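pipeline/complex-builder :: batch 7 item 3
reading input block
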Amino acid sequence: MKLNSLTLKKAISKLQHKEISLSELVEEAIKEKNKELHIYLTLNNEAVRQASSQTEKQLEGIPIAVKDNFLTKGLRSTASSNVLKDFIPPFDATVVMRLKQAGGVVIGKTNLDAWAHGSSTETSAFGSTKNPRNKEYLPGGSSGGSAAAVAADLCIAAIGSETAGSIRQPASWCGVVGLKPTYGRVSRAGIVAMASSTDSPGPIGKTVEDCATLLNLIAGRDIYDATTSPQPVPDFTKQIQKGVKGIRIGICYTDHEKLKGSDAAKAVSEAGKIFERLGANIELVPVSENLQKGHIFDPNYAVAAYTVVQRSEVSSNLAGYNGIRYDYGRAFFGDEAKRRIMLGTFTLSKGYSDRYYITAQKVRSLYINNYRELFGTYDLLIAPTSPGYAQKLGATKDNPMYGELEDILLEPSTISGLPGISVPCYRDPKTNLYIGLNIMANYWQEEKIISAAYAFEQATQWNSWK
Amino acid sequence: MKQYEPVIGMEIHVELATQSKMFCGCPADHFEKKPNTQTCPVCLAMPGGLPVPNKKAIEWAIKLGLALECEIPLFSKFDRKNYFYPDLPKGYQISQYDKPLAVHGKIDTKLGMVRIHRVHLEEDTGKLLHTTVEGKKVTLIDFNRSGVPLVEIVTEPDIHSGDHAKLFLKKLHQIIRYLGISSADMEKGSMRLEPNISVKPVGSKDLPNYKVEVKNINSFNFVKKAIEYEVIRHIALLEQGKTPVQETRGWMEGKNETISQRLKEEANDYRYFPEPDIPPMRFSSEFIEDIRKQIPELPEKVKNRLMKMYDINKSVAEILTQEKELGEYFEKTVSLSQISPSIIANVLVNQSVNIQQVKPEELIDLINKKQQEKQVDAGVVATAIEAVIAANAKAIEDYKKGKTAVLMFLVGMVKRELKGKGDAEKIKVLLEGKIHG
């Protein structure tokens, strides 16, 4: 367990100096702890052997947990659905390939909501993951397994994917760092498609610097994904100590009626004060229901817009799993996938697509324009990642819109394709559960959110590995 | 009986002869390849496979649009057309819905202009093979064709007869071949023809409230026959006061008739939406103009130019321009020799020269040799003429009385004397001179 309790930065350093050994990689202890928390759906039994040949590379054979909707060559990849329960991919997702090329080793495949549909891991066909911070609670989702793997020290760092909150919300609930890059920054090739127009793979780590290091390795144009951007990829660790002096930060949603007086609102207001102390200019950006200038557009409408667009794309993306191949046909879809397929089919149907799909796309444009205006005034926007703490196991039962409501504060920015990072900003001493601070910037400005998040991490006590 | 007129539109699918498929790197040439040997995660629609568009295919589709005198919008995009069929592995086809690559073109024919409604790009499907394996009836799928670039050309309902359709299709085929973007080989399925046929009373301004689509046609002649068959069938139904059923029918080659395949009472709902895996396309006018510059001189123009430049007649020029290579071969040959262009043209048109094997230089040698063979010593010709006049006194009399047709008989006799040698035109002149003294 020693190795896995380290941050990426320390592990690399200790391996380089031969202070620790990779033979500790997949120990019985990991298997034991995994049984308790149900984090890995598949463990890579070859990890130690694979790691031993990677010692000359940057990651030195370091174990990375990978969400199970990423294809891993020769290692079962299910997307937590029974439809793919025996699927062994013949190729690696681009992200996985890039990590391997840098000397990373996939230690195991982490649990998620089936097809990444959800924010709890409770829709997984193989059962939900428990929050390592408090086993009676959910880890969040859909990348719940990856966030939990980091929080439980069952890996050194992890990879997740976010469509609307799926990296940052579980990172927030598990008290770890999750970075959702700009849409198009990281390749989607080899990832089981969820909502193609918003899916963004990204790192989940113990520290901001670890996430920046991983992003360096996975970002950049990919010839297998036409939506990846030719934008140059900077070294995301280079300006990490730049600080926040003189930058303008807008605080969002703390005045929203659903958040007033909540721990999340308090923690984020507190975070604002810390940034102020660090030299930033802080201002509240009031919520507006009707697109007033200088206001942030009410996130309620984003829930509706996201739901329609996402269901539409899902209904099409899942059409190929019709039973002709992959052995397990449509009967193996869980309830959530079925609901989404039906709703998406409806919203794209003749006579309804104008009312739903096209309207949703127009609302999406409203949010994009709203951010464009706000980023003319502010360098960064901060907000609670989630309205509150992790919820108890079973909370999603009989609540089909559960995930959307948990992700309400993230959906406006994800449907706009913006980058964001969630860092721990409060821990409830009674429950040991965390609240996450979401820091967002304009397109392609991951460097800005990384240096701000790093400054916050250094100035506060909330990071467990610091 | 009322007078009726057919209203016909065509949908034509053409497989592009690009190196690779539309959205992946697999080879696009699938004809008679071992099944499922030209596939990858993208064209098999494995999880995680993403489409990356083939730039050449987009350029070629625009090129075709320009050759058909279309407008090329500077914005275009791909869309998903959602439907289920076992040969469609993704459960949707990537096609173009409301922003095609080219719109509003035309082709002129002797029987009237046919407007092009749109030209768009999409991907081909896999191929189903219904067969028996180990005593069991099964359907096998070959995905080699899955994802091959397919251009769809849709006309306005401007076609009025089977002959008109055939003429239009021949011209379209010729243009595609000239552009070098497809073999357009109907036997191999790289050009597929689907007429949409209906019939209305002459003079009626409204389009008929039904249409019948005929599929599985692999020759221009069958398109013509299918149209003619359908038009008669529709008129018979209309005369009985019935409306023909809106449906898809198949052409049965052996029986020379169409049969019903699928009722199509309402348009299918394909739930089109913009393909989120491919960013929309924005073209610059320079990009379009660059493509325009790459378009070779098209058959209609070449034909008119050949007629003017080389003084050859229309039917010969038409044959010379059926295939781009033949016209080019003709001009090359003309440029390399002193032989009159009309002689070269006649040889090419009448003697089916294999232009792949015979080089222009070789053809020139052949023509020269033939012409030399025809040349005979003037003295020998004169002797032969004398002999023929002496032996055919009766015929000479007839000719002198005005039976001019006899002259060609006499020319033939002289040529026989010369064992086929000699130039008939010259012999004719000499004979006339001799007879008239």
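note: The mean pLDDT of chain B is 92.
queue -> next item
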